[in-house]
Specification:
binds flavin-adenine dinucleotide, 3 domains, four-stranded antiparallel β-sheet, Enolase-like, domain 1, Uridine Diphospho-n-acetylenolpyruvylglucosamine Reductase, domain 3, about 290 residues
Length: about 290
């Protein structure tokens, strides 16, 4: 439970940090809240020579809304997300997601940038970030680029980030009027990680039919995914029980679950079906009440 020796660095600018990462692509690891990296280091599953702390770099924290887009700094903690008045009013499903991450300690230290960069297949944010069509902004020695959430999660613990890139912020468009959203999760009883978690976003036409739907799923494979066939099958429907059940079945077909000591692949597929229906039902009720 004691990490191998490492050198601690505390850069005060993004250019200093990215230059160091570029010079040490194999040996350096960024440190944000430390709630995924430090446990791995204690188990010696990660043995970086250099820990590059992001906490002294200005401009990586905070939440603001500009021109219909909510921007969340990478170092913003889960607690800051769930308690933000901007997030609660404009993106309540993101607050709902942050509220069910881990426990109080984890929510006070863990950051949105760290969670996305770590790409744990059982993490909560990826499902919601996918369903909200978010973008991830990263800076490297080559400059800044914006990555769509749908292109960001590549595989187990693997993202589209280059070795010298640092996430600086997440950009999330405020959903159009008539939209409702919900995150529903079956948590592991000890860690609270998602055995399966589903985020659903639906927009209704004035006549009550579904204009658009987005479904993000975490916990049911090596990475979080969108359930595209389930989404398109809902468009034009009244989101009645039969339509939701069809979407649940289509979502269960969209995943490639793995079995482990926590749940079999078959049980995870069952959970995807059930939690897709629950998330869609709650999202539709919220859309109708707006
Ligand atoms: C007991 C426990 C329970 C938990 N339960 C849950 C849960 O229910 N749901 C859930 O989603 N998560 C859970 N977590 C994980 C938690 O949310 C972590 O805080 C989060 O996944 C990582 O964020 P961090 O800021 O701690 O990142 P760190 O641990 O500091 O870093 C994680 C990785 O991301 C990289 N990184 C960090 N910031 C950046 C950046 N800005 N740009 C590029 N790379 C970066 C680091 O180099 C490292 O590889 C749990 C953790 C613990 C310890």
């Amino acid at each position: 439970m004691i990490p191998s020796a490492f050198e601690y660095l505390a850069p005060t600018s993004l250019s200093e940090a990215t230059a160091f990462l570029a010079a040490h692509p194999e040996d350096a690891k960024l440190l944000a809240g430390g709630h995924s990296l430090i446990p791995l280091m204690k188990l010696r599953l990660a043995t970086p020579k250099y820990l590059v702390d992001l906490q002294h770099i200005p401009g990586l924290k905070g939440i603001r809304e500009t021109d219909g887009v909510v921007e969340i700094g990478a170092l913003t903690t889960h607690y800051e997300v769930l308690s933000s008045s901007v997030v609660r009013e404009r993106l309540p499903v993101l607050a709902e997601t942050a509220e069910v991450i881990g426990d109080v300690q984890v929510r006070n230290r863990g950051t949105i940038g760290g969670s996305l960069a770590h790409a744990d297949p059982a993490a909560d944010y990826p499902a919601t970030i996918l369903a909200l069509d978010a973008e991830i902004v990263a800076v490297g020695t080559g400059g800044e680029r914006t990555i769509k959430a749908t292109d960001f999660f590549v595989d187990l613990l693997t993202t589209a980030l280059k070795p010298d890139e640092i996430i600086t912020r997440v950009r999330i468009p405020v959903p159009a009027p008539g939209t409702g959203a919900s995150y529903q999760k079956f948590p592991h009883p000890a860690s609270r990680y998602a055995i399966v978690g589903v985020a659903a976003v639906v927009r209704l036409n004035p006549d009550g039919t579904c204009a658009a739907a987005a479904i993000g799923i975490t916990g049911a494979g090596s990475k979080a995914v969108r359930a595209r066939a389930a989404e398109s099958g809902l468009v034009g429907s009244r989101l009645d029980d039969a339509a939701l059940q069809r979407a649940g079945a289509a979502a269960a077909e969209a995943v490639d679950p793995v079995g482990d000591i926590h749940a079999s692949a078959e049980y995870r597929r069952h959970l995807v079906r059930e939690f897709t229906v629950r998330a869609l039902r709650a999202a539709a009720e919220r859309a109708r009440s707006r």
